[in-house]
């Protein structure tokens, strides 16, 4: 497509009558062809591309000169604007903090002695003021942390206690489940003896039922005790859980207060101190 346009442009350019000016479209086409050739030279230093750029540029100049000869002055096409070709600007590396600091030192050396002394006094005064603010803040922060972390430590203890109760509860629940299964097994064995004449006869010689009854009574007492203990533990755990749910919002507020004091005020003072120290 571009080759076809270029051939068309060359044909028209070569056969243009002397008294007929080139139209805006023709000038635009010649400009586009020249700019396309120019872009090729940006990517390659090939003699072919350089020659093409020079040839198309020369032809564009000839066309403009042709119109200038007819009109007596360079022709300006209204509304036709092209972006100027701006050469690549060299990348200037940003000065390091050390270089900037050295520049400030050199600049300060050129200042009168009394001005340097005034600046140093002012800087030292500002540094002392900021340092005093920083120390004051640290003391205030430590006091806040001491006050607020007391409740956090209390919460940690309660959470650990809750975890212990939960673990102990799971352990007791497993023991109760094991006892219940053993109790049911022995009860079924007793029922089996009662329902079988043959087993009743054997029991007269072995006394198995009597042993089972004694064992069953022991397990019944143990099971009742375990369930009572588990019930108390469950109540304690639920009470502690309720207490934790009430404490948590307070702790969250305390943590937010500590975080707010530390993350907003303290870094601001540190930043101001650092700026003054580098000045």
Structure description:
This protein has helices at 2-14, 24-43, 47-71, 97-110, 113-195, 197-206, 208-278. With 279 residues, it is mostly helical. The chain folds into two domains: 2-71; 133-278, Helix Hairpins. Residues 116-182 form a coiled coil. Residues 1-23 are annotated as: Disordered.
Give the SSE layout:
Blueprint: H1 2-14, H2 24-43, H3 47-71, H4 97-110, H5 113-195, H6 197-206, H7 208-278
Helix pairs in contact: 1-2, 2-3, 5-6, 5-7
Region (Disordered): 1-23
Coiled coil: 116-182
Keywords: Coiled coil
Question: What shape does the CA trace take?
Answer: elongated
Which segments are poorly predicted (pLDDT under 50) over 5 or more consecutive residues? 1-13, 78-88
State Rg: 48 Å
**How many separate domains make up the residues?**
2
Based on secondary structure, the structural category is: mainly alpha
| Portion in helices | over 70%
- Average residue-wise pLDDT: 72
Output the number of helix runs.
7
Let me know the largest β-sheet.
none
CATH topology type of the largest domain: Helix Hairpins
Q: Care to count the β-strands?
A: 0
Region (Disordered): 1-23
Keywords: Coiled coil
Coiled coil: 116-182
């Amino acid at each position: 497509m571009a080759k076809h346009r270029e051939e068309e442009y060359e044909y028209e350019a070569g056969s243009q009558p002397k008294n007929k000016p080139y139209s805006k479209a023709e000038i635009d086409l010649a400009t586009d062809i020249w700019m396309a050739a120019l872009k090729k030279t940006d990517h390659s230093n090939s003699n072919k591309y350089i020659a093409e750029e020079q040839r198309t540029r020369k032809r564009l100049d000839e066309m403009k000169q042709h119109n200038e000869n007819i009109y007596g002055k360079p022709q300006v096409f209204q509304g036709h604007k092209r972006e100027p070709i701006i050469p690549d600007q060299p990348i200037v590396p940003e000065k390091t903090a050390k270089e900037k600091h050295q520049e400030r030192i050199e600049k300060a050396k050129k200042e009168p002695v009394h001005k340097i002394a005034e600046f140093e006094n002012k800087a030292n005064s500002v540094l002392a003021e900021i340092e005093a603010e920083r120390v004051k803040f640290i003391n205030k922060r430590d006091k806040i942390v001491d006050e607020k972390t007391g409740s956090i430590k209390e919460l940690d203890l309660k959470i650990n206690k809750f975890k212990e109760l939960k673990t102990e509860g799971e352990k007791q629940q497993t023991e109760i489940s094991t006892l219940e299964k053993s109790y049911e097994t022995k009860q079924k064995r007793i029922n089996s003896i009662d329902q079988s004449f043959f087993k009743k006869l054997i029991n007269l010689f072995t006394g198995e039922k009597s042993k089972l009854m004694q064992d069953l009574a022991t397990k019944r007492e143990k099971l009742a005790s375990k369930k009572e203990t588990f019930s108390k533990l469950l109540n304690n755990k639920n009470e502690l859980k309720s207490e934790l749910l009430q404490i948590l919002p307070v702790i969250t507020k305390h943590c937010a207060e500590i975080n707010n004091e530390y993350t907003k005020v303290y870094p601001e003072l540190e930043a101001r101190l650092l700026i003054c120290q580098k000045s």
